[in-house]
Amino acid sequence: MNLLTNISPIDGRYKTSVEELSEYFSEMALMRYRLMVEIEYLIALSIEKNINEIEPLTLEQQNKLKSYYKNFSNEDAQSIKKIEETTNHDVKAIEYFLKEKLQNTKFNKYIEFIHFALTSEDINNLAYTLMWNSAIKNIYLPKISEVQEKFIIFAKKNKHQPMLSLTHGQSATPTTVGKEFAVFAHRLQRQILQLSNHKLQGKFGGATGTWGAHNIAYPNIDWINFSKNFISSLNLEPNIITIQIESHDSITESYQIIERINTILIDFTRDIWMYISRGIFGQKKKDNEIGSSAMPHKINPIQFENAEGNLGIANAYFVHLSQKLPISRMQRDLTDSTVLRNQGIPLAHSLLACKNILKGMSRLTINKEKLDEELNNHWEVLAEAIQTVMRKVGYEKPYEKLKELTRGEKVNKQTIYNFINSLEIPEEEKNKLLKLTPHTYIGLSTDVVDLI
């Protein structure tokens, strides 16, 4: 594949960064998962005691059939594509490919039980869901967990480092660097847990979810229970009451969890961008790297900017997938078919963003000097503490007095100390306030970090 001529940057510029997803979302991967469902279904039919036309497949025979999808090759995929040129139907091409494999073998008598009584959607919904489920568990969850762990490490390392807060872009009560990272680690933890525990569903009820063909052929089989057992054997949750398509509600819920994760990460990348812009965070230099073609001094926060952009693209896809897939005209239309093929794209953008955040974090430094300078220039942030103590001791209109002193005014250490000394409050409370500085007024920030 020529990386320079591909239309999508996911398969071009960024291919090497997300190539592990090819195993789950390429055209060849879809063929392999479809073939897996067809073969597993054939095995399940063979061991159904009420089907007398075929014998139960032995363990050796089952393993032989399973080897067709376990050892699925590029040559196999090309063969299926060749068949599809004639059938103009991708799932039927899988069926014909498997039938060709079994012709003139000891499996010959099983051929007409391949895709028996099924509609294409019975294969497709399971294949797409299995692809998604495998990619989430094997690729995405480990990577987003790595991001969260990196936040935790950074938070604990810097839990004692005071930092000026900005609310509405203006100086506010101080926090710590560690506490701010702990917030994002905590938010991610909740979503990661939801994604880890989320159950994906599958259907297997025939052309319109009635098992009509199944029941007319073998009325003595409990097809509803058969389908439940078959879907469960694939580690999916059975969705028994459906139209022709699986409702896509559960996979949509999964998309929406990742969309929320991405939104949290967008919030994070924008905060980091602004911290770097303020000069309180820095970035390690890399030899031979160029920040600007015109301004040699620059070290741009490109990893965080790249991540933000990719997270936005991913969420645009996830929103459309979530809004489109649960909707089908009557019992079936094909709009979901073309849309589902794209589910790997937003996951690739999400994965790419995670990797860029990790790269950015590896270069992130703390500018302690600048952090101290900001705090020393904003003694007005102690106004909250002072007026709260004044309230405690019954001082008249404390908020208003601090408002008059500090609102819109340049306040320094001496201004604050003079005001505190002028207060007629118990010496114990006065001494407590006189010991307070913007660096020490961090509340329980360090304790918050210990909660993650």
Question: How would you sum up this structure, described in words?
Answer:
- The protein is mostly helical and 452 residues long.
- It has 3 domains: 21-116, Fumarase C, Chain B, domain 1 (Orthogonal Bundle), CATH 1.10.275.10; 128-205 and 242-370, Fumarase C, Chain A, domain 2; 378-449, Ribonucleotide Reductase Protein R1, domain 1 (Orthogonal Bundle).
- The protein has helices spanning 15-18, 22-25, 27-46, 59-70, 74-87, 90-102, 120-157, 177-197, 212-217, 223-233, 249-278, 302-324, 335-340, 344-363, 368-376, 383-392, 398-406, 413-422, 427-434, 445-449; strands at 162-167, 170-176, 201-202, 237-238, 281-283, 364-366.
- The strands form 3 sheets. It has a two-stranded antiparallel ribbon. Strands 3-4 form a two-stranded parallel ribbon.
- A hairpin with a 2-residue loop joins strand 1 (162-167) and strand 2.
- Helix 3 (27-46) packs across helix 6, helix 7 (120-157) packs antiparallel against helix 8 and helix 7 (120-157) runs parallel beside helix 14 (344-363).
- The radius of gyration is 31 Å and the shape is elongated.
